[in-house]
Amino acid sequence: MNTRQETSVAAPRRAVMVQIDGDEVKVPEGSTILDACTAHGTAVPTLCYGETIDPVNACRLCVVEVENNRVLVPSCSRKVEPGMVVKTDTARTRHSRKMVLELLGSSVDLSTAPRVGEWMQQYGADPTRYGVGATVAQPVKIDNELYVRDYAKCILCYKCVDACGTEWQNTFAIAVSGRGFDVRISTEFDVELPESACVYCGNCIAVCPTGALMFTTEYDMRSAGTWDESVQQQTDTVCPYCGVGCNLTLHTQDNTIVKVTSPFDRSLTSGNLCIKGRFGFQHVQSRGDTVR
Amino acid sequence: MDLRFPQAEPTLSEVQALDVVLAPSTVAEGWQRQHGGAHRARELRHLLLPSLHALQARVGWISPGGLGELCRRLDVPPAEAYGVATFYAMFITEQRPTRVVHVCADLVCHTRGAGALLDAVEAEFGAPDQACDQAGVGTAFWKPSPCLGLCERAPAALIVEAGDPAHEAVISMATVADISVAVRQGTHAVAAEAPPEAAVPQTVSPFGAGTTPELVLLARVGKVDPLSLDDFRAHGGYLALRAAVAMGPTAVIREVTDSQLVGRGGAAFPAGRKWQAVAGQPARPHYLVCNADESEPGTFKDRVILEGDPYSVIEAMTIAGYATGCELGFVYIRGEYPRALSHLQIAIDAARHRGFLGPDVMGLGFAFDIQVVRGAGAYICGEETAIFASIEGYRGEPRSKPPYPVEVGLFGKPTLVNNVETLVNVLPIMLRGGPAFAAIGTTGSSGTKLFCVSGSVKTAGVYEVPFGATLRELLDMAGGVPAGRSLRAVLLGGAAGSFVRADEIDVALTFEGVRAAGTTLGSGVVLALDDSVDLPTFLRRIAAFFRDESCGQCVPCRVGTVRQEEALVRLTVGSRQAHDIQLLRDVGEVMRDASICGFGQSAWNAIESAIDRLGALT
Ligand SMILES: Cc1cc2nc3c(=O)[nH]c(=O)nc-3n(C[C@H](O)[C@H](O)[C@H](O)COP(=O)(O)O)c2cc1C
Ligand code: SF4
Ligand code: SF4
Ligand code: SF4
Ligand code: FES
Ligand code: FES
């Protein structure tokens, strides 16, 4: 299990004073710079950071300037130290964030990644100025009936791998393979999911920040042009399938369940479910069989 | 863990290959220490890299059956093992012919005709990475390779033949005919390699007007039988260890501190401070890692020491382990160094057999042993945190610092990481004393330095000089630029270094000297380029190196190195200049400022200096 809950029930932590953009901010020892920014009310964009996953600090969107550090520092993972002087909005941080967005935008399909468009505008990112360059474009992987994997949208945040592996699921169906620009999220020898160890818990889908991993229901509706979040409703309930009683959020459109999530902030599940909670709605709606 | 493994069955050869690495005793030992499944898996995970090597060496690729068997025996998830295998260039996950010829396409070889060589090889044998059917040699394939660390005899090639046993050989000053013979006939047809000291011109004849400096670090190279422990001892071997034990660990660290020795692996960090920091850590055990990954293009100094005087590395590591409280040291040696690996392994086995390694070193009352870990074709694994991941059986991805290795290093324990050359400096420090060592060289740079001089010089090789010599003096020692050519520029420090102009070669090759001149010593690369070099193509090769070797973890480097190379290609074709130079600067700045590790942070250095100092691409 994750150690996060242990820390939250441990003895109260000492407070650390840090400076964020000129203001003194008091946060518990062991907090990250991002925690301190949040406490201060300073927005810092993040992509690979996940509230239920240990940070891998791979995207570098959240970088900030810390006094006496030669290079920029990832705020999502760097722990605060007493007296740390942090600047979140400088020419250097703005340049790096703009470039991270441009580099991603020029190589990855970010069309279903929430908030990215807004940040692109905010930082003046122009992914088109790279001309025709290499991208991660590739065919969508549709190899089971429950969810699709569109790695043309993958920013390699490692979150799905960590959710499937050590952090939550302990199934290890997927991992990072290859090197450099050829890095891909993959099963062993890229076998299809039904041949892999995948148990269709969908916990990878829950943490994916770009829509690269998507419920088949959502994928099909988007393809048909009928997906419309503005008319969807969210209903909180408890999973009926077993005695654990995981919290479910049912997303419905036109009285049909189109997707199931679970709140990240519940200590019982932290957003994780099993195949029954995640995809059982298809039985409820008699939409056919689940796994092959 | 309750893992699911692939259905494919291993072949008998694959099972046997794994039996050698995972000998029943090894696994039994793992079982004894186990406290549950996950724990056992962690105990065995470091055997993943050697197991992949065993499969690759025996059958020439990592098959689904072989990988599945490996995963069952080590309790490693197949997806993860596949992720590790695909990280390394030497491991192949599609069936290929068992014989592969790696033809160096990197910087130094490029200045020595590798471009034409590669073209000719392609013309004769067809495209890389596929069986040479075109030439009727279905049992072999070839591929272009990053620097093989054989730059003094560029252009170079390495041939690897899977089997029982596997064979490896290097080809020096390769011609198309040499490559052709290697592809068609294999390792046994390749000419024998020159002895290690052939790479050290100073051992052969004096250079300069009778001013050959005394060799300190290379004193034994060419003078001793590198495989003989007795010969090593007859030439002063193990006197430094005796001196160290006589003074005790605290005094050893004080001498190293007083010597003002700084790391030779590129970062120039004070060695004494690092040793002190590790020695003072309460957590146990402590580990020592000798960094012999040496993959910076143009670097081959550590190879010469490992091949020509391997016991000196063992003795130096023993002293470091004694002083900092490590009972186990690892040598992480790059996968493309067959002779260095074999010399080192023979020396370690002999030292252990004779009691110079083991539970009671030389009867002096302390334990120290050394394990060799062979890399598998990934430059990034030379980065100190990536080394840990690689040894532990994970993808060789660097991690953010802090925490620093001296606190949280190999297997999460306090770890001393030092370069081969840094470590062997400890021998003269023990014998002469720290202050006397500090008196060699300049005030800011103590001791002697190994420089890897290559490219457009008469006699390429490793040169040892006291700090203070100028670049001009060093080039003169190497015989200068061949007649009829003139010097255009010198690349200092390798692909991650920077260029100096021909009119700047009076710079003193000291840490303070190069810093003042806005350049770097890096790993000691001195690559001379003459007026015949096609600079834009050379820069493209630098960019290609960074694109190929990025671990791919962070966005600035993973995508930035690709965009950098694309812009350079466009600039070489000749259009959109101003736009692309600005693009290079923008990409360079984010790589330098926001990448996780020193790789991305330095991926634009050389190209920037070519634009700003040499006026290239404008
Ligand atoms: C991308 C990269 C590659 C490196 N490769 C090597 C190497 O091959 N050998 C080496 O000794 N140090 C290498 N280093 C430096 C190591 O991280 C580390 O600083 C060094 O091994 C410490 O030893 P030293 O203090 O004795 O120099 C590399 C660093 C980076 C960022
Ligand atoms: S659905 Fe669950 S088991 Fe399958 S890959 Fe995603 S996290 Fe792993
Ligand atoms: S598939 Fe989604 S969660 Fe997984 S690495 Fe890619 S972007 Fe991240
Ligand atoms: S800078 Fe490059 S090599 Fe280093 S961690 Fe990032 S992607 Fe990997
Ligand atoms: S959010 Fe911090 S590095 Fe990605
Ligand atoms: S061996 Fe070819 S560049 Fe070093």
Describe this structure in words.
The complex is a heterodimer of chains A (292) and B (618). Chain A is an alpha+beta fold. Chain A is 23% helix and 18% strand. In chain A, helix 3 (91-107) crosses helix 4 (116-123). The longest helix of chain A has 17 residues, at 91-107. The relative contact order of chain A is 0.11. With 618 residues, chain B is an alpha/beta fold. Chain B has five domains: 12-85, no CATH class; 99-199, 3-Layer(aba) Sandwich (Glutaredoxin); 229-437, NADH-ubiquinone oxidoreductase 51kDa subunit (Rossmann fold), CATH 3.40.50; 441-530, Ubiquitin-like (UB roll), CATH 3.10.20.600; 535-614, de novo design (two linked rop proteins). Chain B has 28 helices and 13 strands. In chain B, the strands form three sheets. Chain B has a five-stranded mixed beta sheet with strand order 10-9-13-11-12, sandwiched between helices. In chain B, a hairpin with a 5-residue loop joins strand 9 (448-455) and strand 10. At the A-B interface, helix 3 and strand 7 of A face helix 6, helix 24, helix 25 and helix 26 of B. The structure holds flavin mononucleotide, iron/sulfur cluster (3 copies) and FE2/S2 (inorganic) cluster (FES) (2 copies). One iron/sulfur cluster binds at residues 163-164, 169, 171, 173-174, 198-204 of chain A.
